[in-house]
Amino acid sequence: MDILEHLTMDNILKNLSSLSGDSSFFFNFTDDVIHDDRETIDFIIRYVIPSVYILIITVGLLGNITLVKIFITNSAMRSVPNIFISSLAAGDLLLLVTCVPIDAFRYFFEEWIFGTVACKLIPVIQLTSVGVSVFTLTALSADRYKAIVNPMDIQTSSAVFWTCLKAVSIWLISVLLAVPEAVFSQVVHIQDKNVTFTACVPYPLSNEMHPKIHSVMIFLVYFLIPLGIISIYYYHIARTLIKSAHDMPGEISEHTKRQMETRKRLAKIVLVFVGLFALCWFPNHVLYLYRSFNYRRIDSSLSHLIITLLARVLSFSSSCVNPFALYLLSESFRRHFNSHLHCRRKRYPERTMSYVQSTSAVRMTSIKKNATPPRRQRTQAGGLALGGFADGLGRDSESEDTLRP
């Protein structure tokens, strides 16, 4: 089910608690708070929420689209970890263009207005995105474990093929796990304080055990179990690295050393991704569990509302932080990212001037010494220009690309 809905529906709906929420919560909420709090809530809904959601969508689309474009247009970047990272970005994009806008619009309507199809489809999309994220991070951790434990393994074309197959399998599994959300989600009409309003609910309202079972299963499948597996992988990675630091033979080649350092850095990048995911989603899971097991208690305090909103925003933020974490941690990705954002435009005039100055210098030297014929002048001039470009490529190729194993 749509995980965010479970964190915003108030216990006014009794045993309904869903992560993507329903704005009716806020209108019922205002009946139980003092006037000053109502003004604060009105300010949050009218100004803070739209600004934050627009920022999340804009930043997330910019970062993830650029990341996917880099990996698609650069064949040298199509490595095993990069395929997983691209899949991760695709899942985030799916969430950003569907669930986030609809969730933002809910604050401005007293009830669910998107119909039965959206009620069933949006929860599936969001849970699929969350599944793709956490399961891909688990696969990335397994890949880094293999790379560290067997550093001499060479990545082949078949490895890339099998990685693509794994990525597709992760998507299929995530969709299948989310299908029950479409089966049980339904649009219902709820009577509250002599007012009837429409809401999208994640499961039947007839049994109070439904929210408890659902919240525990979501927490286990999409958080605790995957992070537990990832922790085991990184425990063994740490042990292997500590052991290899003591047992590494002195005659090991420089290339092997650079490869090991590159794989260590990529392991750190994956660990940062995992940490960001856990940080962003943990508050949501805690709140959902709390609401599911305390559904008879209505917490109408302003502080509870603010905490809930912060948890929602933090969850959506998980869909836009990975590209920028990669930007900070990977020099090669930073170069490609700047290039795709047209940051190189400022350097084009400098390269042109450098080429002209180099050409002029060669020609002037040749004229003064009167030792080089015109055809030779052009060859030397071109040689300088091509030589500078080749040097640049050489530095790039020798640099340790943190995006490649």
From TrEMBL:
GO molecular function, one term: neuropeptide receptor activity
Transmembrane segments annotated in the record for this chain: 52-72, 84-109, 121-140, 160-179, 213-235, 266-284, 304-329
Biased composition range(s): Basic and acidic residues: 393-405
Superkingdom as given in the UniProt entry: Eukaryota
Membrane topology: Multi-pass membrane protein
Sorted UniProt keywords: Cell membrane, Disulfide bond, G-protein coupled receptor, Glycoprotein, Lipoprotein, Membrane, Palmitate, Phosphoprotein, Receptor, Transducer, Transmembrane, Transmembrane helix
PROSITE patterns xrefs: G_PROTEIN_RECEP_F1_1 (PS00237), G_PROTEIN_RECEP_F1_2 (PS50262)
Coiled coil, from the record: none
GO CC terms in record: plasma membrane
Region (Disordered): 368-405
Residue ranges of every copy of the G-protein coupled receptors family 1 profile domain listed in the record: 63-326
This protein's record includes keyword Transcription: no
Location relative to the cell: Cell membrane
Principal place of residence: membrane
Record family assignment: Belongs to the G-protein coupled receptor 1 family.
Name recorded for this polypeptide: Neuromedin-B receptor
Source species: Anguilla anguilla (European freshwater eel)
